[in-house]
Design goal:
- A 4-stranded mixed beta sheet has the order 4-3-9-8, with helices on one face.
- The protein is of the alpha/beta class.
- The chain has 2 domains: about 100 residues, Alpha-Beta Complex (Quinone Oxidoreductase, Chain A, domain 1); about 90 residues, no CATH class.
- The longest helix is centred in the middle third of the chain and has 15 residues.
- Helices cover about 30% and strands about 15% of the residues.
- The radius of gyration is 19 Å and the shape is globular.
- The protein is built from 7 helices and 9 strands.
Length: about 230
């Protein structure tokens, strides 16, 4: 079958891979009708390359048959961007982080992986914006992925404002029963049917990754069709 595979830093290709097999009692095989490129896929496309092996299959969003209040700041702020933030609130720090991430992808894997685990930093513009925006005593929820081991954030501001941080990978099993009726509703109350800005064939996946990374042509979400 065809799949998008990692071939090296910022280099992906659509190649032929082995057909899937049932290995565990709870396994299932589905016919993919479309799949989307997630922001976290860009982490693998670039900075997390040392953890991949040439030929690894990419993608984890396949398909088969979310107000400010009275000037005091919102009660809660969601950072759904994460380490891929391209902001300008701290241009020098952002540039340093981008340079460090790029340099890491040029190092041998045996050097890059331990370096990232001890000194990796993220681009934090979205998180810093959330910290400034939320009201005192408010909550910041991080659904955007972060992976830095040495991120410089203002603990003083977090402590002074009494901010609560909630974060982690999506708790899919906890919420799937409540979310699925909304996603499958023909009235589309969440706007998911129009969220994808680009629909492209699977063979165009390498181009789609570059476009998504560079935010070209108003690209917010890509769905790939086989």
């Amino acid at each position: 079958m065809k799949a998008l595979t990692w071939q090296g830093p910022r280099h992906v290709e659509v190649t032929e891979v082995a057909d899937p097999m049932i290995k565990e009692p709870a396994d299932a095989i589905i016919k993919i009708t479309s799949t989307a490129i997630c922001g976290s896929d860009l982490h693998l496309y670039g900075v997390l390359g040392p953890y991949l092996t040439k030929g690894d299959v990419l993608g984890h969003e396949p398909l088969g048959v979310i107000d400010l209040a009275d000037g005091r700041g919102p009660d809660a702020v969601i950072d759904a961007v994460g380490m891929e933030a391209h902001g300008h609130s701290s241009p020098i720090r952002t540039k340093l982080a981008e340079t460090a991430q790029l340099a890491t992808t040029l190092l041998p894997d045996m050097v890059a992986a331990p370096l990232m685990e001890k000194a990796g930093i993220d681009r934090l513009d979205a998180l810093r914006t959330a910290i400034r925006a939320v009201r005192r005593g408010g909550t910041i929820s991080l659904s955007g992925v972060y992976g830095g081991a040495a991120d410089p954030i203002s603990m003083r501001e977090l402590f002074d404002k009494g901010i609560q941080l909630r974060m982690g990978q999506a708790h899919v099993h906890r919420w799937i029963d409540q979310v699925m009726p909304l996603v499958s509703d023909p009235l589309d109350p969440l706007g998911v049917q129009s969220f994808a800005t680009h629909h492209m064939p699977l063979d165009a996946a390498p181009e789609a990754y570059e476009m998504f990374r560079d935010k070209r042509e108003g690209c917010l979400k890509v769905v790939l069709n086989p």
